[in-house]
Each structure stands twice: as structure tokens, then as C-alpha cells.
Records
---
Amino acid sequence: MKTEIIGIQSPPARNSRPNYGRASNVRVNNGRANNDRATAKKKGADPAQLYSKAVEHYAMYFDRPEARLRFLNNTRTKQVERQAHLQHSLRRFRFIKNTRLYAWLLEARCYSAIIEELRAMAPSLPKNRRNLAQQIQAPFSARLFFLIHQSRHAFYGATVIVAGLMLFGLYSLVSWSASRISDLVARNKRAPIFVVPAGTTPSDPATTIPTKYLPYKPETIWKVGTEGEYEKWSNGCRISTKYETDNHPRGYYTIPRDSDTAGNQFSDKIVGIVYHTPESGMLSFTPDNNEAIQKKSRLLLEYVRDHKSYNYMIDRYGEIYRIVRDEHAADHAGHSIWADAKNFYVSLNESFLGVCFESRFEGAESLDEILTPAQINSGRLLTDVLRTEYTIDDADCTTHGLVAVDNEKMLIARHHDWVRNFPFEAMGLSDKYKIQPPSMIDYGFTYNEDVLAKLGNKLWEGALAAEVEFNSRAEKARVSPDILRQKLRERYNSQCAKTRALRAGPGEANNPQLAEKPVGAGGPTESGNN
Ligand SMILES: [Zn+2]
């Protein structure tokens, strides 16, 4: 029996009317709609008409007329809306209407409407047909469209996340570029920095060593004996003990590279050598100045003895004087940092020997203006004696300018004696100007315009490379260089505090800061003390 459907235009296509009989007589024959569609396609029928028939076909599964009517109305309304929407969307691409793509889109939208409505109205279906929506042999395109439509919120969410990630990536790229550009601009504003090579040894064949022997490993050297105020060593080194004095026994904590502690093991061992100049006034090194030169040396020796400034001093004639006994710390390095393959060292007074060449570094253009050949010769002999005596590694022989730091401003080169021109090669040592200073790469100390101005815009090779290295370490740690610097400064301060706490009291003689203050009128003062 045919069921009248009110308000629905009957599809004009007559070639395959669906069975309008009572639903109880309807077999679930999903192949029917497919057949209709296939036939229609072959004949080039209007897809809109064709799918109207499909809708009518599925309406038959509803037993109750009002449910059937509701299904028909809802589905057809959806279909009309979707068709209109599709046409509107494609209004600028009218040519698509005559292509297979248009039919495909229409088919997909129509079937998705049927599936949606069947699901929504499943409770109105007889019990045995409630999963009808799943049985529909809708074309793959329709199912796909329906799936996309159903999961559109998840899809939108994913799109938002992807877009967010892309925006963040873009932002990171832009801000990274901006910081690089501002770095470059800042660098370009700066006066150019000149990289200074290591000191060149004066062309004295007695003091030059073929590079292939560097760094030199001292053979066994021993003390031959003591004659009056002189020690004689087997390599020809002669050390005057005339100004020898005490200070305080060495004591510090080793800070292994692989630990985050402020130092975990007490030590009183000598680790290395820090070379200095006292920045005393200089007289021309000529025979007619003999007396004046010797007098000046005496005054300086008395001064450094009284202030316990160094462990050794080498005067302009190459005479070597021991000042503070080796097993005692001299007040030579102040706030300072160095490192070798195993350990970090801070406050180097405790762990390093201070060796001072009587000379003036400031204002000198070359090594010849700073040291006499006799000083270079003696420096080498003393270096070999000390390295043999205390098994000092080449890596731990450095200069004050390379280790001194300003811990308040986190700046390097607080003292700048030997920030360049030190004759490492003549001392049988490797060139430490090529080493990236541990103060910069491991502790975040840096340089600014003031430091550069004081150094005449001349910087050693390692310092330039270290700035880049530190910034890249910060980038890897995903923190700004300033934040990382702040953290490392605290680490440095706690390490210093731990070592300094070993001293009984901050007496004047024990306070490196006080000891490094310049002496009164006419006295020597190291560069950068003020
Ligand atoms: Zn110094």
C-alpha cells in the first residue's frame, strides 16, 4: 500500500520508484539505492533527483508514518540547504558544476544528511533496524565526508594547535633573528676589536725553542745546594732567598669539572703558575742607569715582601727572588678563575704560585719593551724548576690578565697584566691566548666597552671565541645568557666563600683585595687595580 507523503515533491525520475509499500513488507535491501544511483549515473540523471529517491528509500524503514514523514522532511531540508550552500560556495567556480567533482560533493553531502538523520532518529526505528545507519552502503566519499564532518571539532583543534606551533616557531625565529641583528648592530657600533697574537720572543737564539718541543715537559731538575742567600738548581737556575717571607699555609677545595658542588675535597697542593708584572716605573735599561735600576728593584722587593704580593720576582737583570715561600699562598691573584681538564680553580692565591717580572706592561707595544732577555731566560729556568718540583701541568701555567675577574660586574680582565704579549713559547709553554677562558665559558664572565677601552680594543683570540661559545651554551640550555650568567655568578661566589672561609680571619695581609691595592706615592701598582 502506497503511503502518501505530504509536503514532499515526488521525485520526477520514474525509472526506479522505490517501494512505497508498508514498512513491514520492506526488506532491508541496501543494494537497491546503489543500483538506482548507478543507473542514474549512466543516464546522466540530475544527482539531486537521484538522491531524493535514496532518501525516500530509507524513509520506508520507519514503520510509523509520522516518523517517516519527519525523516523525509528533515533529510530533504538538509539536502536542499546543503545543495544551496554548495552552489553558493562554488559560485566563483561554476565550471565545477559540469564535472564529476560536483556530483561527488553533492553525493557526499546528501548521504551524510541521510546517515545523520538515521542516527538521530534511530529510537523511532523498529528495534531490529536501529543500526540501519551503519548498514547503509553509502559511497566511500559520503562516509569520508561524514567522518570529517563528525570529527571537525577535533580537526579544528588540531588545526589551531598546528597554527599555534607554526606561529610560535615564526615568533622564535623572528626574535632569534632580532637578537642576532641587535648583536650585530651592537658589534658594528663598537670600535673594531683586534685579536692579538701571543708574545713574540726576542730574537735571542739562547731563548728560542723550536715549536715542535712545545709544550715542554721538564726533565728531572733538583736543588744542588744552598750557598749563603742563594739556592742553586741543576738546570742553572739560581734563586735568592734574601727577601723570603711567610704568609699563610695554602688551603682550598678542589672543584671537579663534573660536579656542581662548591668544592668537595680540601687541598694544599700547588697546581699552577700565574705570571704578573707589578707595573713599577721603568728606567732605561742601560749601563749608566745601573745604580738607579738596582735601587728601584730593592724598593720593589721590599714592597712585595711586606705585602706578600708574589711567590717569586725576577728583576731586570734576571735575578730570581723567592718572596712568599712556596707552601704559603701569596696575595697575587685576587678574584680569579682558571681550569684544567680535571678541575676548576677560584681564588688562585691558594692553589697557584705567583711569578712576577719586574716590568711595566701598560703602554708597551711589544715584548722587547717589557722584558729583558735576561728576564726571559730566568723566567724559563724558574718555570722549569717549579714545574718539575710540583708536577705542574702546562695547562695550568697562565697569566694574571687571563684569570682576573671583577665578580661584582661579572667582567673579565680586572687586572690586565699580560692580557697579551706574554712569551709562553719562550717559557716552554703552549699559547694560553688561544684557550677560551674558563671564566667566560664556564662562569659567564664577559667584557664590555670599558674593559675593551682599557685593553685598547685588543682582545685575545680565546676571549672572542668564548663569548660566542657562552651564548651558544645558553641557547642550548634554553635560557638567556644573562640569566645563565646570574646563576653561574652565584656558583662562583659560593665557591669563593667556601675557600675563603678556610682562613681564620680577614686580616689585612690575608685579604687579597686589600693586598692588591696600590702602595703610596711612587709605589708599584698592578694594572687595573683601581
Ligand atoms: Zn698581576
Note: Residues 172 and 178 are 10 Å apart (CA to CA).
---
Amino acid sequence: MGRDVTRVRRSRGVRAAKAAVLAAPVVVLTTGCSVEEVLRFGWPVGVTPQATEMRLLWTWLAVASLVVGVIVWGLTAWTVAFHRKKGEGELPRQFQYSLPVEVISVVLPTIIVAGIFAYTVVVQNDVDKSIPNPDVKVDVTAFQWNWRFDYPDNPTGRPISTLGTSETIPLLVLPTDRSIEFTISSEDVIHSFFVPEFLFKRDVFPMPDKNDTDNTFVIDKIEREGAFVGRCAELCGSYHSAMNFEVRALNPQRYDQYLRLRTQNNPVSGAPNTAGEALAALNCGELCAPEATTTYPFSTKRTNRVASVRPNS
Ligand SMILES: [Cu+2]
């Protein structure tokens, strides 16, 4: 009698396990997500090799966690299904002081944590590296509440600078397929330089040397042309939320042309072309729009009682 009950329970348990195994792919497939999307586990799509490395770290961490999770859930379900208390006063078999179980439960997690640590260090070192001769150097200066971008050592040999104002979103024009070194510093409080598509942000300190902060970072390249919004990601005062900029990634030929145009005088103003004027002269459609396309200026009038609206909306 007792054996029959156990057999029925066991076959029910096996059926439930089979149903769970079959249901798992159905759940994944019916979401309509591609395999690549599923394996990203919610990680956004980046535009730099570093962003891809971080995504791979995230994917493998999620896969490792799921493997551990499935083992734990399986063992829990198996214990609940097949090792229940069978009668009054009768305890299921006890496993305390089992040397093999205790060794496995210490050694296995230690190996897993060591593996995660090592992989994280490898990725972090690459995201955080500096290289001796980057193709492009950009100085980023943050201030309440805007940005200035300078191009030191640019091939034109002339100073090129882009300054954001309350009326104009600063455009940080960069090349694709070239390594870029950013040197960041603040003129007042702590800000944070954040381009979501780089999947990277770093605090921008005033006097980085005295504050002993690492104020440079490198990306190996931007992998595609496009406009990407940039933000300040550190609460820095009243108009922190308005402190946006835009990265405009152009192919290297267009970028070189852009730098040359920045040093040439605008026929109307008689002054060197601004970022917007140089982009307009490049005439490459939406990609060369003279104003930011991913964000827009916010009104800084303290008496304003209505939200800023996107121009032409
Ligand atoms: Cu800020």
C-alpha cells in the first residue's frame, strides 16, 4: 500500500517535471523575442566593443545564475515531492554532518564566485583601460548646467571647441571606427558624463588631480553612425535634468571634413563655423542635422510654470 502511494507520487512528480521542461521553451518562444534578445536578458544594445563585452558578461552571469537556480529549484521540488514526512512521528532521512554534501556546498560556490570575479576583472580592466596613442582625443568640461567639448591635438592644428548654451544643445561630433580618449573635468560641482549607448558613465570631478580621480577613459571605437543622447547622471543642482548633449557619430571621412569645416569661416557670420553650421555644410541628411535630434533645450526661466516642449512638436 505504502509503495503504491510512493509510486503514484513519483509518477506525478515526473509528469510535472516533464511539463515544466516542455513549458520553458514555449514560454520563451511565445514572447516573440529573437534568440539574441533573449540572451541579452534585458541588457540594452550598445555601440562600442566595450558595451558588447559588458553585455557578454551580463549574459554569462545570467546563464550561470539560471543553471544554479534550476539545480536549486529542482532539488527543492524533488525533496518536497519525494521526501515528505510519511507518517506521524516519523522524520524523513536527515543529512546533517554529511561530509560530501558540506564539501560540495562550500567548494562549488567558491569556484563559481572565483569564476565570476575573474571574468568581471577582465572585462572591467578593458572598459577602464587607457592606451598610449588614441586616434582621437576629446576634452569634456562640465559646468552648471551644460558642457564644453574641445578637440586637442586635432589634425587641423587649430583649436576647435563646442559650447552648450541654454538655447543650444552641444553636439559632440565623433568619428566611427577610431579609438577615442575622453578627458573629463568639471568647473564647479561633481557631474557625471553618461552616454547610454556607450553603456558607460563616469563622475566628472572639479580638479581631478587634487581629488585623485581617474579622469580619462577610452572606447575602442563607435561601431555605427548615428545620434546618441548624452546626459549628466549626477544630481548637480537646479537644472541637472536639462544638462543634456548629443553625440553625433560620423564616418571617418565625414568627421575629417567636419574638423576642416570647423576651422573655416562661415560666409554669413564671418566667424569659424559652429558645430551646427559645419554639420549643415556636410549636408548628409538627418545625420548632419544642425540641431540635436535626440533631445532639446529646456527653459531655464525660474518663473516658468509650464514644462519645456520639444521644438516643432
Ligand atoms: Cu551635472
Note: The CA atoms of residues 54 and 83 lie 42 Å apart.
